[in-house]
Specification:
This protein is an alpha/beta fold and 446 residues long. Helix content is 47%, strand content 13%. The strands form 5 sheets. It has a 5-stranded parallel β-sheet, with helices on both faces. A 5-stranded parallel β-sheet has the order 9-10-13-8-14. The chain has a two-stranded antiparallel ribbon with strand order 4-5. The longest helix has 28 residues.
């Protein structure tokens, strides 16, 4: 039921309006002055306020600002006995939905209420959608509790409140775009555009058009003006994924935009301005690339103001179980299956795999397993062949003087010291648990 509040010091008119509005099926609350009306709004969620202009304790036109400031989704319709154009103009400037004259416009009240309520409902839907998007891309939505991941999240939270350029580095599939979205959602630019462009997807000519936009007739096929991503990101965030793949000719143009906030569309001569925050991502070592003249050194320095390196999944063994369970829940719902459980050996295989494709690969493997499973538990037979049957390492006899032999002997000694506790062994060796498991497989240590 929709809640309507009537604020008017004329008791008879207030009662009449209450009866009319209640007959439409709405819940109606009454107040004789602004103070008591505002108190009711603090207690009840009011959708629309019908408010007189002249009241014992103030002016309804001014009161609109107070309502919109405290309850931005509530709409206000002002009622006045004496219509004044100046009051009407000011009321609309203050955020009123409409301004009508008592008596003359009584037949407009119910249609106006319905229109105001439509706007309220639309605003609530938009707010709910924005909240879902915000929740989806918040730092809290990033799954994992490993020390490496928590350090990265802490860095990302710190830089998000600034306007600094951020460079996200790490292997493919580690979740760089998720971090970019979270930085945007936690920044002062939240609510503005987040525009993502993958630089490895397009040829030089198409990438230039996508980035800067073009004028009609600028080249064959340019049938109309087209906005570029730089323009679309104005006020918000531009995320350039795989920036290491950007042709070196375009790098100079991007550098100029970052230094001046000005750009020129293809086929145009007039500079345009765009105020955006840049987040770039790459799986390449841009420092090495620039030293070998495959990436502009000046652009690298401009991008590398704040680098965040996202660790690969094999260095975040602790995060694999919660990620796996999350993906199982997600794909169980997607395929209309009741929530599945994960067999201990299945989970062990996940924890000891090298994960060259990182989180993206884990997600795909879980989706495949959920599709294939017939029972209620994910078992190892649902994993890809190479995970079920990892390639056996060479068992050739090593020289007693080789580094591998010394390393194997040292690992075995530490394992004996910890009585087989692999987590403690990895800690003493100062390597990750994933690296230890790889070494155990490599040297055939059981």
């Amino acid at each position: 039921m929709k809640n309507i509040l009537i604020i008017d010091d004329e008791e008879k008119l207030r009662g009449l309006l209450t009866r009319i509005i209640k007959s439409e099926g709405f819940e109606v609350f009454e107040a004789s002055d602004l103070k008591s009306g505002f108190k009711k709004m603090e207690i009840k969620e009011i959708d629309v306020v019908l408010c007189d202009v002249k009241l014992p304790d103030g002016n309804g036109v001014d009161f609109v600002q107070k309502i919109k400031s405290a309850f931005p989704l509530t709409e206000v319709i002002l009622l006045t006995a004496y219509g004044k154009i100046s009051d009407g103009v000011q009321a609309m400037k203050n955020g009123a939905f409409d301004y009508i004259v008592k008596g003359d416009d009584n037949d407009k009240i119910i249609p106006l209420l319905y229109k105001a309520l439509e706007k309220v409902q639309l605003q609530k839907k938009v707010q709910q959608l924005e909240k879902r998007i915000s929740d989806k891309y918040s730092f809290d939505s990033i799954i994992g509790k490993s020390k490496g991941l928590e350090q990265v999240i802490d860095l990302a939270k710190r830089v998000s409140k600034t306007d600094s350029t951020v460079l996200l580095t790490g292997e493919t599939g580690t979740g760089k775009e998720v971090f970019a979205q979270a930085i945007h959602e936690n920044s002062n630019r939240v609510g503005k555009s987040f525009v993502a462009l993958n630089c490895s997807t397009f040829s030089k000519e198409i990438l230039e058009s996508e980035l800067f936009g073009h004028k009609q007739g600028a080249f064959t096929g340019a049938l109309k003006d087209k906005k570029g991503f730089i323009e679309e990101a104005n006020g918000g965030t531009l995320f350039l994924d795989e920036i290491g793949e950007m042709p070196i000719e375009l790098q100079a143009k991007l550098l100029r935009v970052l230094e001046t906030n000005e750009y020129i569309q293809i086929g145009d001569t007039t500079p345009r301005k765009s105020n955006f925050r840049l987040i770039a991502a790459t799986n390449r070592n841009l420092k090495t690339e620039s030293e070998e003249h495959r990436f502009r050194l000046d652009l690298y320095f401009r991008l590398n103001i704040f680098e965040i390196k996202i660790p690969p999944l094999r260095e975040r063994i602790k995060d694999i179980p919660p990620l796996a369970h999350s993906f199982v829940s997600q794909f169980s719902a997607k395929t209309n299956k009741k929530t599945l459980t994960i067999d201990a050996e299945f989970l062990h295989k996940l924890e000891t795999y090298n994960w060259p494709g990182n989180i993206r690969e884990l997600k795909n493997i879980i989706e495949r397993a959920v599709i294939l499973v017939n029972g209620e538990t994910l078992t190892t037979d649902l994993l890809p062949y190479e995970m079920q049957h990892p390639i056996e390492k060479s068992t050739k006899i090593m020289s007693a003087f080789s580094m591998q032999s010394i390393e194997k002997l040292h690992i075995q000694k530490v394992l004996n010291y910890t009585k087989g506790n692999k987590a403690e062994t990895a800690r003493l060796l100062e390597i990750s648990i994933a690296t230890l498991y790889r070494k155990l497989d490599e040297y055939n240590i059981h």
